[in-house]
Known about the structure:
heterooctamer; C: alpha+beta; two-stranded antiparallel ribbon; G: Rossmann fold; 2 domains; seven-stranded mixed β-sheet; five-stranded mixed β-sheet; 15 strands; binds thiamine diphosphate; binds iron/sulfur cluster
Amino acid sequence: MYQDEELVFSCPQVVADRPTHYCPGCHHGVAHxxxxxxxxxxxxxxxxxxxxxxxxxxxxxxxxLVDAVEAPHGRAPAVATGVKRAKPDKFVFTxxxxxxxxxxxMAEIMHCANRGERVSVVFVNNTVYGMTGGQMAPTTLIxxxxxxxxxxxxxxxxxMPIKMAEIIASLGGSAYVARTxxxxxxxxxxxxxxxxxxxxxxxxxxxxxxxEVLSACPxxxxxxxxxxxxxIANEMIPYFPxxxxxxxxxxxxxxxxxxxxxxx
Amino acid sequence: MYQDEELVFSCPQVVADRPTHYCPGCHHGVAHxxxxxxxxxxxxxxxxxxxxxxxxxxxxxxxxLVDAVEAPHGRAPAVATGVKRAKPDKFVFTxxxxxxxxxxxMAEIMHCANRGERVSVVFVNNTVYGMTGGQMAPTTLIxxxxxxxxxxxxxxxxxMPIKMAEIIASLGGSAYVARTxxxxxxxxxxxxxxxxxxxxxxxxxxxxxxxEVLSACPxxxxxxxxxxxxxIANEMIPYFPxxxxxxxxxxxxxxxxxxxxxxx
Amino acid sequence: xxxxxxxxxxxxxxxxxxxxxPKEIIKQADRFNQHGYKPAEVPAGDMKKCTGxxxxxxxxxxxxxxxxxxKKKAKKGASHG
Amino acid sequence: xxxxxxxxxxxxxxxxxxxxxPKEIIKQADRFNQHGYKPAEVPAGDMKKCTGxxxxxxxxxxxxxxxxxxKKKAKKGASHG
Amino acid sequence: xxxxxxxxIAGFGGQGVLLIGNLLAYAGMNQGLNVTYIPVYGAExxxxxxxxxxxxxxxxxxxxxxxxxxxxIIMNRPSLDKFQSRLVDGGVQIVNTSLVDMDLAEQGRIxxxxxxxxxxxxxxxxxxxxxxxxxxAYIQATGVLPLQAVIDSLVNVISAxxxxxxxxxxxxxxxxAKAAQ
Amino acid sequence: xxxxxxxxIAGFGGQGVLLIGNLLAYAGMNQGLNVTYIPVYGAExxxxxxxxxxxxxxxxxxxxxxxxxxxxIIMNRPSLDKFQSRLVDGGVQIVNTSLVDMDLAEQGRIxxxxxxxxxxxxxxxxxxxxxxxxxxAYIQATGVLPLQAVIDSLVNVISAxxxxxxxxxxxxxxxxAKAAQ
Amino acid sequence: MASGDKxxxxxxxxxxxxxLAAGCxxxxxxxxxxxxxxxxxxxxxxxxxxxxxxxxxxxxxxANMLLGATACGVRAMTSSSSPGISLKQEAISYMAGSxxxxxxxxxxxxxxxxxxxxxxxxxxxxxxxGGGHGDYRLLVLAPATCQEAYDLTRESFDLAFQYRNPVMxxxxxxxGQMKEPVLTAPDRPADPAEARDWSLDGAVGRGPRLLKSLxxxxxxxxxxxxxxxxxxxxxxxxxxxxxxxTEDAELVVCAYGTIARIAKSAIRKLRKKGLxxxxxxxxxxxxFPSEALAKLVKPGRKFLTVEQNLGQMVEDVRLSLCGLATSxxxxxxxxNLPVPDDFDEPIAxxxxx
Amino acid sequence: MASGDKxxxxxxxxxxxxxLAAGCxxxxxxxxxxxxxxxxxxxxxxxxxxxxxxxxxxxxxxANMLLGATACGVRAMTSSSSPGISLKQEAISYMAGSxxxxxxxxxxxxxxxxxxxxxxxxxxxxxxxGGGHGDYRLLVLAPATCQEAYDLTRESFDLAFQYRNPVMxxxxxxxGQMKEPVLTAPDRPADPAEARDWSLDGAVGRGPRLLKSLxxxxxxxxxxxxxxxxxxxxxxxxxxxxxxxTEDAELVVCAYGTIARIAKSAIRKLRKKGLxxxxxxxxxxxxFPSEALAKLVKPGRKFLTVEQNLGQMVEDVRLSLCGLATSxxxxxxxxNLPVPDDFDEPIAxxxxx
Lengths: 264, 264, 81, 81, 181, 181, 353, 353
Ligand SMILES: Cc1ncc(C[n+]2csc(CCOP(=O)(O)OP(=O)(O)O)c2C)c(N)n1
Ligand SMILES: Cc1ncc(C[n+]2csc(CCOP(=O)(O)OP(=O)(O)O)c2C)c(N)n1
Ligand code: SF4
Ligand code: SF4
Ligand code: SF4
Ligand code: SF4
Ligand code: SF4
Ligand code: SF4
Ligand SMILES: [Mg+2]
Ligand SMILES: [Mg+2]
């Protein structure tokens, strides 16, 4: 850095300075950075116990330098429940993919949310099983080809893509639920704001926080990173609408406070 | 029967002529009879493969004289999926309690419904684990005392009672979803009509049918059968509203047809 | 005229039937049946009040009640429930 | 005046940064880096066009871009993102 | 041979057979004996019947579950049907004649002791103490423990809020013992 | 001793190393040899590198996984770093000099055969055939199979819709062989 | 409850109280017969003491909550019975692989499948050889009395933390449901430092910690397995067993848990008839007390293993006898309630009578 | 695909094709490395043939779908790898208890826990002794080549229906991922009547049927277990094994699956050096070929069991040798890729060289 310069953007300290194993254009890296920035900005780094899930982000613990425990596939919300009940004063979050959270882990996420566990969930929905090589996920779009629905997902046989944010918002224990995307700068910034809220409902003891983040898996979508971002805009967002589905802080601190957050 | 008499009401043939193991006033018996009547009336007895669940109704196969397979606790929707995919021309239904369906079996019921499996689900919600002696269920009402929430269920710690009918109705694959009760004659008759619809969406290939039946467990509620029926009216129905949450036949065959069914 | 038959050995004495009879003719017996329950019964003489509405049978969890109605000439047989 | 630094060994050549630069100054290099990717770069001379908007850094999945701005006297330092 | 006694106590769900099983076991424990108590449980309960097994012994106890008991307390007809044939030769069977026809009780191979537990309890002003009456008869008929030891153990099984019921229960035990004399 | 050869083929994900591994294996199978082929797979793939192992043998094959190979085809720098030291003494290493600095390749302990697979492929009008060039060089350098057997097996690995590409690929294999003469 | 009291407790309740005496802070469970008294008791007792009781949505979730709590170095437990324990196998394998000191109680019921709710020893293999995937071992404790249920549960937490390994308490339907007098012992709470070196509590003043079982780098999983194996070897120091009348025995009956106590009754009875029979009762099923058993081998002495299953521990018995002797096997089928008389005939047969 | 073709197939694909050749109509699975090629292949092939492919929401659900389909007497299969197989244990116990002819494929990966995705034999115990609860046995087939993977899968359906018992195919990451030439065989489809006597298809012209594993009446579960045990005894007729160069061997190496084929390479090499070493390879792991192994015992002959785990099959080897001989054990740790050279030293040591 030159003398007369200021640093406008750099990697947060809690994000390890090492190359990731992700494919080019994979959005996991963006999500990691946002979480890392928030942990620093909110002063949570030394209070955090992170629960990693099984998926391409299984190595999250190599990239975010906080205490971490590895959950079996789909069970991160149960593991997080155990952590939080054992250590109620810690900040606990899970980071899960759509196969992990919406398929095998359906019972765990539903009940964790319904109990209103004071934990936060970062849900990376890329409509596919990334790590295992591109199988159909519960969120795979109709017509999308994967290795286990080679003709494209068909509603008749495989059902409709599941909308987790809406379902979680309908449960009693959730305090903040939003869906965002990482396909452009505006949405990335919006995602960070929503994640902050989801973390805040935990730190303020309000309840369970959940952000579904629409993300790209260029490799298994078999397209370039740029095309993948276009697909999010053109195919995913129309089916998975972005927005805040529930916000307990709105009732508690008033609309104005909520808006204030937005305006920051 | 005397010569000049006609039989107005008797036990359907498919219901075995043997005493049940249920407690006095337990609604499982009513639900069994309704299912049996419908199987006969709809001509399904010889087409049926029934999937029993684990709960007080585990012996259902002793009472309904149709082919049956016993599913592990909570997994009846998965077993039913296997049955139906293997034998698409059979009539397949599960009969599950609230512990079975809404707790351990949450993932299976969600995905079975979401895939739109052509099966029907009879969901007996008695807000408690009957068979194992009265533990808290996901549907246990706030304040209700059970052996594992001896001070009464508390929303802060255990979350709110889960509303399965609403959740299932929000999924793409469900074709008919209703909630009824067995606490009085009117509701019993209404339940039968709803079960018929849930069976019909299967036989007509429309999709997944689901009826949540609010039922009494006098034993674990620690009250008389009569008081238990009052509790359904006064405490359960206000929280778990009765009604039809989804009806694909309404779109398909028109409102009139639906009404016709009601008026029968 | 109508009447009901209660299969005493199947009755568990839950008394739900007693709450729905429009004629309030169903009562609990004083004796125990073989399973240790005091069964429901219609006291002698009251049966003639029965309308054959089948409410009792509909609510009975143990399908212990059968309902008979004296045939009327022109009407078709009603189905269950 | 502003500028960016791309850590070439961390860049995977996904080109997402090239799509968000308002000045369209980020290009793909012709060479491979040690991991076999053709990294992003700002051709010599174009850097002066950079506004320091940090869009490129925000979208980069590999946190490969650092953004610097020449200090202005009165303004407070902006935070990340 | 050292003291050893086992008993199966059986009846309808509401008759309090588990309570007197517990009471007997506590009495044994308070007397310094080894004791085990085990109820049947789970789905079997739904049928409306209940039973439990108590073993009292000076030696370490092996099985708490007894297939062929030395004694039984039979509170209702289904229990008689189920357990009478299992009783060992020479065993003692207490029969609640308020609900069980004494004609059905074997005599000779075993010793059947009738006690009109219902009526006796009724006379004491509370139908629900038939179980205590039957236990009193059992203690009297077998002599396995001093009657007073059983009465003294009522505090162990009757919760503090029902403490006032202890004298009544004691009276029922004594009435049962008397009836079996 | 009967014929036995094994090879690790390694490069970046997009370089088609698995394809030439398959091709080599098919060629061996078509020649009546026992063959095994195994790729690395799973999370390891994410790093952007790929490799596979092929064994050709007249005898039944034991391990399809080889820790110290008799030969390698090295398509990029990370592969050289990983596998060169594992090559047995006297082994053959084909080095794609279009991406790997030949100065880094050992000579003496092993036999390193340079082939500018990228440039040769480029000259044939399609950059993506560097893999075929390298395989040609390998066949030439080791003589494990007749070149024609490899070319004849292209039909087994190139899908019907790309059949028109077979002659081009054959030419690349031949060019590679020539470069390694 | 003051320590040293003599209480009349169900085996299940003895386990729950043993856990409390050991400073157990969290319990995660799901209802299943015949162990419901454990969660029921703790659902009141734990919150009263500031601990956490969670009725999980399933056994799978319960086991994973346990994984989370023990990763924080907190004393925590789950309990279930056979089908529920099957569902916990994946998480148990993870906890073993991540070296977490979890306590798992299995009140074994009849199987396979839904089976029945009676006693069984059909889960011996599952407990001692890892029903889950991969190589791992649990320390398996098999109480035979309510007193032992209390004592061993109380100790199990110390063992779990000492070895950083899950410990299983293996009882059965009879042990869980029967009541016996239990002398409670002084509390044996956690050493506040016992997990200081590895547990998760937020990376304050140190680098981040990681508890995991994934080892993808070449050879990393092999190293992990080597380390685990060394630990299992070290755990051999914990072998426990009981010998009863073995001194002059012509026949040694090998049995554990409820079956062992019933066998003991039978042996007492047969001794009175002059038959020279003794009992070898493993208390730790893993590590199995092989050396102690091998030492019992004598010329002419016979062995008979009795289990309420189709023959499981008998393999450990035979392996322990090292070919110097062998063991007959007698099966009490799950679904039959075992009584002392059942042992007369097989013992006589084994004695060659 | 016409039968009799020689194809170049991955082990996983060989299994999928073997299943098709056997008339498999339904597949239920969930993605997990290293077996994904099986569901991926069948997701296309099965619907093309009018069968059903369902990607279940989890391994638990997949196993229970299998339970449902096999209850209808249909040939059906699931496949997974270690952690996923752990999750299936409850349903496997139910299927065994309900006597359902299900095929379960486990492409064993490294454990415990998440482990790695490399080859391992750490699930031997789980496979042969029932990772689930209660007493039950699977028929366990362990192919060592892609050809065998094809052939044994094709046969497994016949065996499953013949015994009305679940069959497990136990492979590993190497077998699943490697390609070898495979000679396909004629289709071996279901006998249309094979399940006529017990399967569910709607009670037409007969009383209702019931498939369950709950046996609550006194003694009923005992009867069920007795019946099952008799079946397991009968299954002994299916033992399969391979002997290689055992005739004059001074040392017999016992190994199965991938490790056995690698051992064979080593043995070939050592034979050329003049060492008298042979191989005993169990193909059925349950029933274990105990008698065949016992017959190999000779004065002076030594045994060495090699497994890629911490020592599991070695127990069966030792039990089979009946005290007449014993077996050394050499462990290749999961996480290390086994190569023939690894065998030189342990073999030399076992030979006393
Ligand atoms: C019990 C179990 N089943 C399956 C797997 C294999 N597995 C690993 S990651 C994964 C799914 C990954 O998909 P997703 O959660 O969408 O994450 P992504 O890789 O797309 O980020 C699966 C099925 C496993 N590790 N454990
Ligand atoms: C895997 C497993 N876990 C737990 C049980 C024990 N169990 C039997 S029935 C039951 C719950 C019954 O409650 P519900 O489904 O509400 O049915 P109800 O008895 O109230 O009708 C449980 C937990 C079991 N059999 N299997
Ligand atoms: S496979 Fe998809 S989710 Fe996984 S690292 Fe690659 S792009 Fe990301
Ligand atoms: S416990 Fe409840 S649900 Fe079960 S039979 Fe009795 S009343 Fe019915
Ligand atoms: S049929 Fe109607 S009127 Fe007659 S007894 Fe029953 S409820 Fe009463
Ligand atoms: S409702 Fe049925 S069981 Fe209940 S009292 Fe009336 S007849 Fe008897
Ligand atoms: S900071 Fe803005 S202007 Fe500068 S290179 Fe990045 S995107 Fe372009
Ligand atoms: S976005 Fe990052 S990784 Fe992608 S090309 Fe630009 S600098 Fe490289
Ligand atoms: Mg995904
Ligand atoms: Mg219920």
